[in-house]
Amino acid sequence: MIAPKTLLWLALLLPLGGLWSQEPIQRITRMVKAPEYYVEQVALWEKETRSNPQEPNNWYNYFIAAHYAQQRQQSAAPRYDLAEIVAEMQRAIPNTFEAYYFQYWIDSWSEAGCDWLDRAYRTDPDRYQSYLGLITCGELNRDAATIQEFARHWYHSEDYSPGLASWNYNMLVNLEREAILLTNGDNDTYPAWVLQSVKGFRRDVEVINSSMLAMPVYRNRVFADLGIPALETEEGAVGGWTELQLTIFQHLQRHTDRPLYLAISVDSKLRNKLENNLYLVGMALRYSEREFDNLPHLRQYYEQEMRTDAFGESLHPDPAAAVLPRSNLNYLPALIRLLQHYRETEETTWALRVKKHIRQIAEAGDALARVEQYLKE
Questions:
Q1: Cβ contacts of residue 256 below 8 Å, gap of 6+?
Q2: In the chain, what's the furthest Cα-to-Cα distance?
Q3: Is 367 helix (H, G, I), strand (E, B) or coil?
Q4: Which residue in 114, 142, 299 sits closest to 207, CA to CA?
Q5: Could you count the other beta carbons within 10 Å of the beta carbon of residue 74?
Q6: Which of 179, 317, 350, 368 could pair with 259 as two cysteines, CB 3.0-4.6 Å apart?
Q7: How far apart (Å, rounded) are the C-alpha atoms in residues 66 and 79?
Q8: What gap in Å lies between CA 260 and CA 278, rounded to an integer?
Q9: What is the pLDDT of residues 324-335, one digit of tens each?
Q10: SS3 of 222, please?
Q11: What is the chain's alpha carbon radius of gyration, rounded to the nearest angstrom?
Q12: How far is CA 223 from CA 87, 97, 284, in A?
């Protein structure tokens, strides 16, 4: 058994400073840049947009840069009126994919937002940018047909990441039957839903994005489907975002007998609140009120179930190649614990194998110095 407080959590430092030339803005789930980068790109793309306001691509990059600059900057940094940028966009390039799509960003996670997104999709059905939002709209309404339709579109698009698919496969593969899994963001949620909807993999698991659970209407639709009483509470009523997540999790724990898991990528503040009852089983943490021997689960996971092909260089282009090395660092807590176990039991072959994978992952994620102590004999 791993004592919950001994879990190894790894994070990378983002690059700081620098001067950048104007370039297309990648989604933050595909390419993470320093906050200063987005601020500079806002200025560059705003200038380009003012020079040629009829070019949709200018507006696309201008808005995305402003959104990420605002999202990643501190409170003292420049603030951007995103709604006003969209209003200007609507006047300059009405009835375009961009005008509809970014109005959805302003009204996202609402019925009005889903209507705007549907207009964007109908304007250009081949633009993959709308697919994830339409999956979200399907999930908000618990509409399996819509989820499956746009999960298939995304699966066949250039935006689908084989590496993140393997990551999500490894997150789901060893969960108990009928488990409920709380995830964190885009990269540990959408690929899991696609694996379920398109590939038919682990459809018994209820994958729920923890951020979406903040919406009372959606939350109680999920709870109704699970046979759980409604929970009518807001973030401010319980003290803050972490406290709301904890309240929701405790409500689940009290009202269901299904196994409960947190994705290893879930916010550390929530994990810390529950750490005395969390047990690492791979890419997820099993919640248990009773002491739980997780070593047999870890062994079976690594020796029989885990896909390790995602650790090496991909044979095909991967749109998430820039974020995969960082995401793959989440494999290390389980692998390091297994290395310790194999050394204790003198299973040399398995120890050498897992050591190779630890080194491979750490080198790719620029974290070798931080795990070197575990690799020493």
A1: 180, 226, 227, 228
A2: 70
A3: coil
A4: 142
A5: 6
A6: 179
A7: 8
A8: 10
A9: 999 999 999 999
A10: helix
A11: 22
A12: 37, 35, 22
Question: Could you please report the per-residue DSSP string of 89-131?
Answer: HHHHSTTSHHHHHHHHHHT-SSHHHHHHHHHHHHH-TT-GGGH
CA 62, 67, 68, 69 torsion-angle sign = positive
Residue 12 has pLDDT above 90, yes or no: no
Helices (H) and strands (E) in the chain, counts: 18, 5
Rounded distance, CA 286 to CA 334, Å? 13
**Residue 115, CB half-sphere, CA atoms under 13 Å: how many?**
4
Tokens of 119: 């207009």
Distance CA 177, CA 166 (A): 20
* Distances 273 to 25, 245, 276, 329, 330 between C-alpha atoms, Å: 36, 10, 8, 22, 19
Q: Determine how many CB atoms are found less than 10 A away from the CB of residue 114.
A: 21
Q: How many other CB atoms are there within 10 angstroms of residue 62's CB atom?
A: 27
Shortest CA distance to 135 belongs to which of 150, 118, 155? 150
CA distance 21 to 37: 9
Query: Count of residues for the chain?
Result: 377
pTM exceeds 0.85 for this model: yes
The per-residue pLDDT for range 47-76, each reduced to its tens digit, is: 999 999 999 999 999 999 999 999 887 665
Token duo for residue 299:
């062994």
Q: Give the helix/strand (H/E) hosting 272.
A: helix 268-274
Distances in whole angstroms, Cα of residue 291 to Cα of each of 220, 288, 376: 31, 7, 30
